[in-house]
Amino acid sequence: MTSRTALIAGNWKMYKTGDDAVETARRLLDLVKDVRDRDIMIAPPFTALSQVSQIVNGTPVGLGAQNLYWEKEGAFTGEISPEMLTAAGCQYVIIGHSERRQFFGETDETVNQKIRAANANSLIPVFCIGESEQERDSNLTFSVLDKQVQSGLQGFASGDLERLVIAYEPVWAIGTGKTATSSQAQEVHSFLRSLVEKLFGEILAQSIRILYGGSVKPNNIVELMGMPDIDGALVGGASLDAETFSKIVCY
Ligand code: PEP
After folding, report:
1. For 206-245, how does the pLDDT look when each residue is reduced to its tens digit (9 = 90+)?
2. Ligand 1 centre from 73 Cα, in Å?
3. What is the pTM of this model?
4. Distance between first and last Cα of the chain
5. Which atom of ligand 1 lies at the shortest distance from residue 215's CA?
């Protein structure tokens, strides 16, 4: 049996104005206020963080951002620093989401710098990795993930990664309604845990949380969470509605 605390995280992507986000957060909080045995996080857009923080501060619902830039401040138009996120009430930050890799030029190297910046500012990095459909069809899944992990975590020691969360999100399953089967996901999670063990040792490998993401819904969360190496979920579309997300949280 594992002692890892499950984490159910919602990525709201570029949805919801401040007022919409507050309303959803309020409703969610009402539905999950008694949940104590797992961690919950929501990641609204930057513009809603401060408002949502006032709703969830001091509750079982943690607050995350969807990205950061690694500098403290400066002439970096359009970017947000780790200090700004902590001041807005964030405890978590999603890093290297496949949409950022695909549309905004995020690379393993920028991901590495962002994880470093998150760590330096006591933010919990949710480090996203995953293979494309073409890579899976070409039997490249494990080599792609190996490179993403090794490059993303290059230069870190195990002590730097105690709070890090890995989110395995096969790109072909994000927003498509195609979920990896629980055995496909377990196979990858087990590979990732072994990779962490090889790189950083058994203690970290046993404690690190590895989330699954990709079309997680109330009707597939139970089976996914039944897998020994799946420690939670990163949920996109199904986290936008408080009732639906609360069903996933309370699987
Ligand atoms: C995501 O955005 O990280 C995600 C997994 O999206 P969805 O749940 O909509 O597939």
Report:
1. 999 999 999 999 999 999 999 999 999 999 999 999 999 9
2. 30
3. 0.97
4. 18
5. 10
